[in-house]
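[agent] plan:
  1. take the single chain provided in the ticket
  2. run structure prediction with default settings
  3. attach structure tokens to the ticket
  4. add a short note for the reviewer (M.T.)
[agent] executing step 1
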Amino acid sequence: MGRMLTAAIIGAIIVFAWGAVSWTVLGWQKWVMTGTDDPALVDAMKKTFKGNGVYVFPGPAMWKDPPATDAEKKAFGERLEAGPIGRIFYRQAGAKEFEPQVLLKGLLLSFAAALIAAVMLNMGARAGSSYISRVMIVVLMGMFSVLTTTFIEWNYWRLEDSYAMLMAADLLVGWIAAALVMAGMLSPRQAA
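[agent] step 2 finished; step 3 output follows
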């Protein structure tokens, strides 16, 4: 159990450190995301949005209460085809950059994921799997995560290909690095 916890802690630190390097040093996300400080847009959001939340446009007819009429469903389809379409994550209150509680939460989430990976690695080690097989356990877990989150959103929300590919690569690089270390820490002769 001790080796699994140690491997999870080290894995979480690697993934967290990769995220810090990726977002603050490399800054490759700027290739696929654009910031705007347009006061007219910000004012329009303040006037339009009723509070914190995720806003999509056009608003899906199927979400109407009472249920949408056939004419409303048809109008939604036309607006959807005409565009633009989008999704906005909106918070009325501002936030400080690099707030400690946000960074701590990120580290704890990385630890929770790394602990799952460590359990899987330990199971593989107990079964006598090779180092490469153990690395692949974590890499495949990362690929599973990409397919079930990033690429699902890419498909249904029609995200830009470059954005989805970059977010997938960002996640996978961190977990590949963690896998290379964690798999070595949890070898068949060290399995708990």
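[agent] step 4 note for reviewer: The two ends are 6 Å apart (CA to CA).
[agent] ticket updated
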